[in-house]
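User: Could you check the structure of this?
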Amino acid sequence: MIKNRVSKIHRYREIYNILTKYGFSMIAERLPNRIFFRKIFFRKSSKLSSKYSRGKRLRMAIEELGPTYIKLGQVMSTRYDLLPTDIIEELSKLQDEVSEYPLGDAKRLFKEEIGIDISDAFMDFDEKPLAAASIGQVYNAKLFSGEDVVVKIRRPNIKNLIEKDLEILKTIGGIVDDYIVRKSVVSFSEIVDEFATTLRRELDYTMEAQNYENFRQSLTDNKYAVVPKVYWDFITKKILVISKLKGIKINDTESLIENNYDNEKIAYNLAKTYMEQVFLHGFFHADPHPGNLFVINGEKIGFVDFGMVGYLDDESTKLLMLLLKSSVDKNSEKIVETLYKMDSIPETTNKMLFKRDINYVLNYYYNLSFDKIDFSDALTDILRITYKHKVRVPSQLTLLIKTIISIEGTAKNLNPKFNLTDVSKDLLESIKKDKFNAKRLFNKTYSSAYNMLEDFRELPKMLNTIFYKISNDKIKINMNHEGLSKFRKELNSVTNKLSLSLIISAIIIGSSTIAQTKTGPQVVGMSAIGLVGFLLAGIMGIILIVSIIFHSWDNKK
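Assistant: Sure, the predicted structure tokens are below.
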């Protein structure tokens, strides 16, 4: 217990030093006061603030803070709706690259999880890691059956480190919300909570293995997509073994050219496969950097690393399609209406100015020929508008937009003339066919009918419960009248002023009576008690008059 507290204080001290070093002392100074020795051990703010931009300083600070913060930075690099462009651009440069951990630790952890030595599990095991990331390390290996596989082993004690950082991040989230982004449409604490859930899932390799299986099944009919096979005998929360994809990294254009591959076709297949994932299946590979994409047999696209995936439910997909259609129709009213349905527009947003900015973007891109439209620029412009007007975009939608931007960039690297519009046309045809597919229609109708039958069966029970509560006076109705709070406040103010007026009147009458009685000490021929009463009534009267004047000014504002 004491060891954990000391470790946590040490981590606070590291974070304080790094934040102060890069010019973010406004956050560092508000870290918990229990770190009583901060003045002795913590450094003062450096001159980096004047040397580098805020975005670059933030990126440098995150890189120094370590794996948890790097992953949060990568997540935030998708939030064009929450952060300005200069910070987004810097956060997009964050790389999940860390030093290797010892082979002995990997072998020990493998035996603890699987129950046998690595040498007994694999015919060959390459002791040099293929890649080292913040959560795990990846090795090449060969099963005794002769199959080439990739073995992913989680870093020792990484869960404890991440949990400690997440707890500290929650504290920082509260500080940021209280002192920096009070007027933001979304709180940083909410982002941290969502990020914590995602990161904990990423720590569990059984969930990543299931993601592989889901994608393999959903893409069975796609002849251009390849997803590795999962070897479930070797799957635990800390160990993942999948088949090795034999292909060329999609950004290795020189090797693609040497093998006489058709880069134009590869770019098209990549984009179409991704769009199918989104609009036909409702979930997509959300980490499409070139290191996770391979070209196999000249035209197939291989996908690896399913630690981060995006999901879109039916309702979100419908709303997304409606947004796209409204954009094509240049219908800004419908766009605003759709965003309202998504609970994205706060009350403080100026709807007229928001629609004006949307119309400007729609008209600009609508007048361009399809071959000249850059979807990355268009999506980025739209997200800039959401940031300007504090419109909250669902995190899954921003993740999708970031993914599409990344995919378009990779496709254009393969084929400079690539345009996402060509893919969209073919995709719409696929969606139409899929919607009117007999098997799909039957499954949907059967599902709807079954749900309705279940609801109907539950109806008598629900009615019985309602009638029972009514008969036993257990139903309460709460009514909330909009606008009454202001009226209540005004009524209280008027009542208080009326009471004060009556008190003043009573004091004046009482003082007049006392002044005429000639009792008690006399001042200028009048009772001193009566004079004090007049003075008190006068002061209270002035306060009442000033209060009324100020209140009338406030109402005029």
